[in-house]
Design brief:
By secondary structure, the protein is an alpha/beta fold. The protein has one domain: 2,3-Dihydroxybiphenyl 1,2-Dioxygenase, domain 1. It has 2 helices and 8 strands. The longest helix is centred in the N-terminal third of the chain and has 11 residues. It starts with 6 loop residues before the first strand and ends in a 14-residue tail after the last strand.
């Protein structure tokens, strides 16, 4: 089985679309209530679905990038605001965190081999 996509809420579709296009994602479906993006590396996609504003949004999306620090610097230069700049985590990932206009949490990270093969991986 392969993961096709994940859908996140968007409260203002045009604002959300502009945010993700500015990050470098390719818009492949654009309707007033739904948008889908193709990730620049690989075949993954994700989508946004127009919803009424919620008091709490606990969605998080992770995007992996081998040159994380360079990517974050480019996004800073484009005006993106980060909640956390690239930081080494105890679970062996390097992560930077920000939010999209609808409050969806975005984690940009690089984990290398530790993404699928951490030292504590369960052997099956």
């Amino acid at each position: 089985m392969r993961l096709n996509q994940i859908t996140f809420p968007a409260y203002e579709m045009k604002t959300a679309i502009n945010f993700y296009r500015k990050m470098g994602f390719e818009l492949i479906v654009d309707t007033p209530h739904y948008a889908r993006f193709h990730c620049p590396d690989g075949n993954a996609s994700f989508s946004l679905s127009l919803q009424e504003k919620s008091e709490r949004n606990s969605s998080t999306i992770y995007f992996e990038h081998e040159r994380l620090d360079e990517l974050v610097q480019q996004l800073l230069e484009r005006g993106f605001l980060f909640d956390q700049l690239p930081t080494d985590q105890e679970y062996l990932w390097r992560e930077a965190k920000l939010q999209d206009p609808s409050g969806n949490k975005i984690v940009l990270y690089w984990a290398g081999k530790n993404r699928l093969f951490p030292p504590w991986r369960v052997n099956s």
